[in-house]
From TrEMBL:
Organism this protein belongs to: Oceanobacillus halophilus
Top-level taxon of the source organism: Bacteria
One Pfam family recorded for the sequence: NUDIX
Protein name (database record): NUDIX hydrolase
Alphabetical list of CDD domains matching this protein: NUDIX_ADPRase_Nudt5_UGPPase_Nudt14
Keywords associated with the record: Hydrolase
InterPro entries registered for this protein in UniProt: NUDIX_hydrolase-like_dom_sf, NUDIX_hydrolase_CS, NUDIX_hydrolase_dom
GO cellular component: cytosol
Domain Nudix hydrolase residues, every copy: 40-171
Cofactor(s) listed: Mg(2+)
Length: 181
């Protein structure tokens, strides 16, 4: 057994939904004892840091039911099973903002909550936005409003907790670091 590895002894599926699957794994710990792990399986997600020609960042504001409030976020969405993240990133950019791009660069990938979920989030950036003549329709149950902010305004939104999710905080920090170069 690898250092710290937890070997799965038994898996019980609790819920299998449209977006996530919840399971409880009984695991054997490195010391030989057993424990239970509640695990959320997720197909992964993409997010885009879109920057306009006048150097504004395009965000979307939307209501987040688990938080019972609206957040301002970079455009993002879940991957369909087996979908190429780059293709999904363009799709989400188009659906959520009405922009498309011919130049999307990979920034990073990270696990959003590795303590209980396997969601891997891929982040891209573009400063080559093109407004679509006919924007792609978004999901029927998704209501968003476009918010364009300078980096300084975005930093203020972070302080005010209007931007308050990991991927968007990462995006603002990433752009701040690029600005310092």
């Amino acid at each position: 057994m690898k250092k710290f590895e937890e070997k799965t002894v038994k898996t019980e599926e609790i819920f299998n939904g449209k977006i996530v699957q919840l399971q409880i794994d009984e695991v054997q710990l490195p010391n030989g004892k057993t424990s239970k792990r509640e695990i959320i399986k997720h197909p992964g997600a993409v997010a885009v840091i879109p920057i306009t020609k006048d150097n504004k960042i395009v965000f979307v504001e939307q209501y987040r039911k688990p938080l019972e409030k609206s957040l301002v976020e970079i455009p993002a969405g879940k991957l369909e099973r087996g979908e190429n993240p780059l293709v999904a990133a363009v799709r989400e950019l188009e659906e959520e903002t009405g922009y498309t791009t011919n130049s999307l660069s990979f920034v990073t990938s990270f696990y959003s909550s590795p303590g209980f979920a396997n969601e891997l989030l891929h982040i891209y950036i573009t400063d080559d936005l093109v407004k679509l003549d006919e924007p792609q329709p978004g999901d029927d149950d998704e209501f968003v409003e476009i918010v364009e902010l300078t980096l300084d305004e975005a930093k203020q939104y972070v302080e005010e907790e209007r931007i308050h999710d990991a991927k968007t905080n990462y995006a603002v920090l990433y752009l701040h670091a690029l600005e310092g170069r």
